[in-house]
């Protein structure tokens, strides 16, 4: 099997550390460099927790992409930085697998056009966990039968973006099958701002909970006459995301367009 050469952005992060282990485990993956906000010029093996992983660390993505021969960038950083890395990677012919969340519609459109122009595969995956993908697909199916739905996403309190990428993606998928409806009482008023959550342009409410002790969880609650349906997914650790990262890295080698969401890859 051909070796896939990978640059990893964010190796010291919660997801980044899991991704380093994944790359180490897979014989056909090779970590050729890392992008980090600090530790420029060091090797990964110089840092705590990465014994014997001899990959150079860069701060400047352009320098890294020019000097290092790589097939794929895995980005697990922050919303602001992830967008910059993704665009630069495509411009340098390196295929980005992006787990970082916080991309808006305009940014996704811009990247789609760039991927087309450069004929370079891009995968933007708001959630890599197979259970979360199924939760979103099941919610899309249920929305054919229930017009009223609210999303509650629950995450650890170190998360920067709200609502979560998964919450937004779920609402988008539901909107494809749900007949539009203004939910709740037409005259309802928030006596405390934000009480009804964030409203998407299709009228679906997303409520974001942030608490220590949580990892990544979501409930999609449908309401109908005399009944409700709740679809829930829980990630209890970050290892839950790694089979999706592996699949994305392997699949991106065969793509020349942008794919938004692993539901487009997982049958
Ligand atoms: N798609 C999915 O399935 C999942 C996606 N995520 C997303 O992945 C992203 C990372 O999450 P998580 O690992 O929990 O976050 P962390 O905060 O633990 O990790 C982010 C890492 O990015 C680093 N970083 C910041 N700026 C730069 C930069 N300029 N260059 C390189 N690295 C930088 C941070 O360094 P420092 O700490 O020094 O600032 C940190 O090590 C988030 O957007 C999150 O929403 C998370 C889980 C699953
Ligand atoms: O920040 C996280 O932790 C997660 N982020 C992603 C999101 O915003 O949906 C995926 C998962 O929920 C974990």
From TrEMBL:
The gene is dapB. Homotetramer. Keywords: Amino-acid biosynthesis, Cytoplasm, Diaminopimelate biosynthesis, Lysine biosynthesis, NAD, NADP, Oxidoreductase. The active site is at residues 155, 159. GO terms for molecular function: 4-hydroxy-tetrahydrodipicolinate reductase. NADP(+) binds at residue 37. (S)-2,3,4,5-tetrahydrodipicolinate binds at residues 156, 165-166. HAMAP family: DapB. The keyword NAD applies. Residues 4-128 form the Dihydrodipicolinate reductase N-terminal domain. NCBIfam families: dapB. Belongs to the DapB family. CDD domains: DHDPR_N (cd02274). This is 4-hydroxy-tetrahydrodipicolinate reductase.
């Amino acid at each position: 099997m051909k070796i896939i050469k990978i640059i990893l952005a964010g190796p010291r992060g919660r997801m980044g550390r899991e991704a380093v282990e994944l790359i180490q485990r897979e014989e056909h993956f090779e970590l050729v460099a890392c992008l980090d906000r600090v530790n420029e010029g060091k090797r990964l093996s110089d840092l705590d927790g990465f014994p014997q992983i001899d990959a150079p660390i860069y701060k400047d993505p352009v320098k890294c992409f020019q000097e290092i021969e790589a097939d794929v960038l895995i980005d697990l950083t922050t919303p602001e930085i992830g967008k910059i890395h993704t665009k630069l990677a495509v411009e340098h012919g390196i295929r980005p697998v992006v787990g970082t969340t916080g991309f808006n519609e305009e940014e996704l459109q811009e990247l789609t056009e760039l991927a087309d122009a450069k004929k370079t595969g891009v995968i933007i995956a708001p959630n890599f966990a197979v259970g979360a993908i199924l939760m979103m697909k099941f919610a899309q199916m249920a929305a054919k039968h229930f017009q009223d739905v609210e999303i509650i996403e629950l995450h650890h309190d170190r998360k920067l973006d709200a609502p979560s990428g998964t919450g937004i993606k779920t609402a988008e998928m539901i909107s494809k099958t749900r007949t539009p409806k203004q939910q709740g009482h037409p005259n309802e008023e928030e006596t405390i701002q934000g009480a009804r959550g964030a409203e998407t342009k299709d009228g679906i409410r997303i409520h974001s909970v942030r608490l220590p002790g949580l990892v990544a969880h979501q409930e999609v609650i449908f309401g109908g006459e005399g009944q409700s349906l709740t679809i829930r997914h829980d990630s209890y650790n970050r290892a839950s995301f790694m089979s999706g990262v592996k699949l994305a890295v392997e699949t991106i080698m065969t793509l020349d367009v942008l794919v938004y969401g692993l539901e487009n890859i997982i049958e």
